[in-house]
Amino acid sequence: MIRCFDLTLPHGITLACRGVGQGAPRVLLLHGFPEAAFVWDDVMQRLAPHAACVAPNLRGYPGSSAPVDVAAYRAKALVADVVAAIQGLVGAPDTPLDLLVAHDWGGALAWNLAAQRPELVKRLLIVNSPHPATFLRELRHSPAQQAASAYMTFLCRPDAEALLAENGFARLWPFLSQGGRTPAWLTPELRARYEASWAHGLTGPVNYYRASPLRPPAGPADPLHTLVLPDEAVTVRVPTTVLWGEQDVALGPGLLDGLARWVPDLAVIRVPDASHWIVHEQAALVAQTIRRLLD
């Protein structure tokens, strides 16, 4: 049974959470765009007998605090939310979280947290979310990744949320499809949950893109070309597993190339028949991977 509760953080942000299980080990699961915490329900229910799992709606998503200032969605503020959530969930300052699981934008926060505060997490599981160093490299030098990430430029438009909401969210549904086809996992019930989530407002979710410097360059003078991510700022020394659906149309396989330079304790699991939405497509595999890491 999924329980819902609010987690109020010391710096005044509240995160609406979903959770199962009690005790230890403890697992925190972070969602991406255009999703919300409910996408982890199937995975968490499979884990309920074995672990205490919590999935928060990130800042700006339904039920959680949603500051209006774009600057409130920069990495520093978002990572601070996750740090405080971990500390609140484990309940002891010297006790690390057993496992941080993160997909898409949640993965961007997890990569940053693991690099900055490795003592907070025993293990990291990243699901189809690029490391900032390889993402920067591919956005600069890979025409294929630049084309695949072109949607980010659209999401930074000042009217993006209004356009996305038009005609029953007609521009949002294709984000969840592969090749224009409605995926089998997107049942009417799940579709209704997405629509209800989006109806709460889309400004917070698109502000993640507006606040980020990582987006396709607009030309040779784009700030992306001079952006520097020092190795010491992005190197992750937490034992890390990357679970990667290879049919991802937004994030190319080149994002995995050379990853060990910044993640020395790394295992990569490639899933040839899965897409960016592997959490839905293969929930059993995701849960099995989590159990193995906890064991």
How does this structure look, described?
With 295 residues, the chain is an alpha/beta fold. 37% of the residues lie in helices and 15% in strands. The protein has helices spanning 41-47, 75-90, 105-116, 132-141, 143-148, 150-155, 160-169, 188-199, 203-211, 231-234, 278-281, 283-294, and strands at residues 3-8, 14-20, 26-30, 52-56, 99-103, 124-127, 240-245, 266-271. The protein has an eight-stranded mixed sheet, sandwiched between helices. Helix 3 links the parallel strand 5 (99-103) and strand 6 (124-127). Helix 1 packs across helix 12. The two termini are 23 Å apart.
List the main descriptive attributes of the protein structure presented here:
single chain; alpha/beta; eight-stranded mixed sheet; globular
Q: In total, how many beta strands?
A: 8
Write the element-wise H/E pattern from the N-terminal end onward. EEEHEHEHEHHHHHHHEEHH
Structural class: alpha/beta
State the helix count. Answer: 12
N-end to C-end Cα span: 23 Å
Strand content: 5-15%
Give the arrangement of secondary structure elements.
Blueprint: E1 3-8, E2 14-20, E3 26-30, H1 41-47, E4 52-56, H2 75-90, E5 99-103, H3 105-116, E6 124-127, H4 132-141, H5 143-148, H6 150-155, H7 160-169, H8 188-199, H9 203-211, H10 231-234, E7 240-245, E8 266-271, H11 278-281, H12 283-294
Parallel strand pairs: 3-4, 3-5, 5-6, 6-7, 7-8
Antiparallel strand pairs: 1-2, 2-4
